[in-house]
Amino acid sequence: MVKTFNGGIHPPYNKELTKNKPVKETVLPSKVILPMGMHVGAPCEPLVKVGDMVKKGQKIGDSKAFVSVPVHASISGKVIAVEPRLWPGGGLMMSVVIESDGKDEAYEDINPPKPLDKLTPEEIKSIIREAGMAGLGGAGFPTHVKLAVPPEKNIDTIIVNAAECEPYITADHRLLLEHPEDVVLGLKAIMKAVNVNKGIIAIEDNKIDALDGINRAIAGSEGIQVIILATKYPQGGEKQLIQAVTDREVPSGGLPMDVGVIVNNAGTCAAIAKVLKTGMPLIERITTVTGSGINEPSNLLIRIGTPLIDIIEQCGGFKGTPGKVLMGGPMMGLAQSTLDVPAIKGTSGILVLEKSDVKLFEPSTCINCARCVDACPINLLPTRLAKFSEKGRWKDAEDYHAMDCIECGCCAYVCPAHIPLTQHIRIAKNTITALRKKNKK
Amino acid sequence: MEDYNLIVTSSPHIHSGESTSKIMLTVAAALLLPTIGSIYFFGPRALALVIVSSVAAVITEAIFQKLRNRPITIKDGSALVTGMLLALNLPPGLPYWMAAVGAVVAISLGKQIYGGIGANPFNPALIGRVFLMVSFTGPMTTWINPVDGTTGATPLSLMKMQGISTDYMKLFLGNVGGSLGETSALLIIIGGLFLIFKGYADWRIPASYLGTVAILSLILGRDPIFHLLAGGLMLGAFFMATDMVTTPITKKGKIIFGIGAGFFTVLIRFFGGYPEGVSFSILLMNAFTPIINRFTVPRIYGEVKAK
């Protein structure tokens, strides 16, 4: 029996669209839009002003806050705007817009660091922070914060999240097929940074074809192994992954650290490897551009900050009329209202659903079928939470653990009454957070 | 820049394709098995009763919703299921108009008065049946023997009044007196397993219900196999105690529901005035459903005990 977690669903994965397509380099974008807060935490202050010339890899935004990472220019050229712009997370965000000079020149100060075995843990963490590492899986949590382990916590395992459970997305799958050695190098750096001897690369069993390559890449490395998990959504959810791999449960309201685990996405590991090998900070990533509304579904190596419209054009443009453009996959992706927003560090995929594939439903009454209860990987009662949320019973929602919801979308996916359960619970979570803040004051 | 009018909604952006009507129509399809059985055992009159009851249920639902100015949702199939279930719980000789009255009561007093689908605390078909039971006790307890059409007693009343048991095989196949759809354990089990396989019924309820009846019968020195196969237990356990709307949503709650229903069934059968207690026991447990839900909230992932 392959390992897995409780609950979950089996949506159509639709990975065949892109899983056999090698990662393609894209043409240099004519401009990039770099939001100052594409990570979780404090947004950066821009370090450049309109008219400045910048080079690839140059830091253009930083923050003094601990939970934050700098932003770097992903192309060389001229800063044409420093202003709030629409960004894929929704609403406006202070952004630096760079117009390409077509030269793609690297910043002079960029040099490869010492080899990994010569680096101290502190140096590794500093390199990771300075390179702007924020989780490439989608959430964008600053990597160095994950690695800042308080002395009282005892970490014994680093897990590389290569489950890639979101339907359609194949960015990590391609990465593992094409550059498993980078993932392993990044994992080793993290293991060294937090002084842990055990590393686990976790993949779903729909990526078995990547196994040989990973095994070759880890051959001779002490303490690193591959674990194969059942293909089930949301296997790549941090809590679900930890449960499947280690049989431990992250305490409610706690962090993976509390059970001795740090989880990093495979893409993040490869990006760390890149900075260790070349010194170049995080300025590009692999993203899967796919869906029924795309002419040539592809896996692309894109510059961070490339506007969606440019990326879509490189994939042959839209097929038919686009209905929804999602940043991310169909389960947790964010629907975009405009194609002027840029791809960011957490953009693992861009999914375009053709208009006829976008189904909008009128919700009907809950019939207590409990399918949501069975699907919830956290063991919540989504139907109850949604009712509390609808009625404004925030205290009840809190007592029924609304704050533990990971917003994976399984409940709404299975609901025969088409009730937007996840959305209701999200509203409850936001309201409870706001109320908590208010009560603190 | 071209304006694409992109649709923006909250995630998730895909859906399983499940729907209320799909569930209800599948349940109705599963009920066709005992329906066909009833036609085989009791003749075309059985089919007529099922049709009368179903049509009356659907029409009542439509009229009620029209009067309340609500969208008419008879297409969701839930009224059809109630109508079929009610008919399968009626004696084969019942006058058609009584069946129609039962269906009207089931839908109006059992369901719509609470606000319609999803809001009713009690199984509507059982409300209809109990209403008929107390209103027309005579016709509701007049049983016909299959094939020859003579009047006779059900295996349960034979057992209760005269202590006579019935052949297991006859009970299993359904060649005995009783309500339309309750006699053939075989057909009910096939239909029930189909629903469980489709995920439209939770195995925990029939398993704990039947298990409780068997164990209590054994403890009390009665014949457990007879009590499993006789009367409305099979139909109740597989098709009525598994009604989603009126039963607990938690897994533990479902088991408690089944045990409770089993307990009350045995209590009524062995110590009560009626030979059969399935309808009453399920209705009783329906009343407990909210409180069972409240006390069986599952332990969530990573739950830490409150300090």
Describe the overall structure.
Chain A is of the alpha/beta class and 441 residues long. Among the domains of chain A are: 111-278, Rossmann fold (3-Layer(aba) Sandwich); 371-440, no CATH class. Chain A contains 13 helices and 17 strands. In chain A, strands 1-14-13-17-15-16 form a six-stranded mixed beta sheet. A four-stranded antiparallel beta sheet of chain A has the order 2-8-7-4, with no helix packed on it. Chain B is mostly helical. Chain B has a single domain (20-294), classed as Orthogonal Bundle (Ammonium transporter fold), CATH 1.10.3430. Helix content of chain B is 60%, strand content 1%. Chain B has helices at residues 20-42, 44-67, 78-88, 96-108, 124-135, 137-140, 155-162, 168-173, 185-198, 204-219, 224-229, 233-240, 251-271, 278-295, and strands at 143-144, 151-152. A two-stranded antiparallel sheet of chain B has the order 1-2. In chain B, a hairpin with a 6-residue loop joins strand 1 and strand 2. The model of chain B has no long low-confidence stretch (mean pLDDT 91). Classes of the chains: A alpha/beta (441), B mainly alpha (307). At the A-B interface, strand 15, strand 16, helix 12 and helix 13 of A face helix 1 of B.
